[in-house]
Amino acid sequence: MTPREEVLARIRTALADRPVPPPVPRDYHHRGDQPPGSPEAVALLAARVDDYRAQVHRVDLAEQVPATLARLLAGHRAVVVPPDLPAEWAQVCPGVVRDTGLSPQQLDEVDAVVTGCAVAIAVTGTLVLDAGAAQGRRALTLVPDHHVCVVRAEQVVASVPEALARLDPTRPLTFISGPSATSDIELQRVEGVHGPRTLDVVIVG
Q: Cα separation of 36 and 51, whole Å?
């Protein structure tokens, strides 16, 4: 018997009389009370996002998104966008820069970023980005100080399990719940420590 085999044999002997772990209850809620994309789910998302001190902007039609973006980005010098951001959104961004692998230093020189999202979770007010269409790299949403995220109503689900069912765990997932913030030991809130200090969420539909 080799030393490795001897060690493994001792471990198996030591574990032979281990207690059987109790079954893990799986009776938690798998679905929320609001159907995905429903007015109730969208309203709950808007309320929870507002709780996180982000700004919520509602538009009825996709055609209204460019005007909303232009209003939110007025006064900015430069805005970075993912390479595949819809052209009608990008063309209203002042000083628009399409990301082609910009360095963190270059990203730090722009004022804002505009993206879409993969899914939004109403009950937690969370936006999830997976580097898919119109979302770009994770660095895009971490370095610029102002993030404008466009969410379509059909992307809104009520619960976390519903969101996870729509996501690919092998993709880089970024969960965003309000502007970046932390608190010191006296619970004094400080925003912008690890990401944008301003988050605008444009909900379409």
A: 21
What six digits make up the tokens of 170? Answer: 């092998």
- Tokens at residue 13, please? 């002997």
* Single pTM value for the model: 0.85
195: number of CA atoms within 13 Å, CB side? 19
Residues 97, 17: contact at Cβ < 8 Å?
no
Contact (CB, 8 A) for 73 and 90 = no
Mean pLDDT by 10 residues, the chain (205 residues): 94 90 88 95 96 95 97 96 97 96 94 98 97 95 96 97 96 93 78 87 96
Other C-beta atoms closer than 10 Å to the C-beta of 145 total 17
CB 141 within 8 A of CB 179: no
CB 95 within 8 A of CB 76: yes
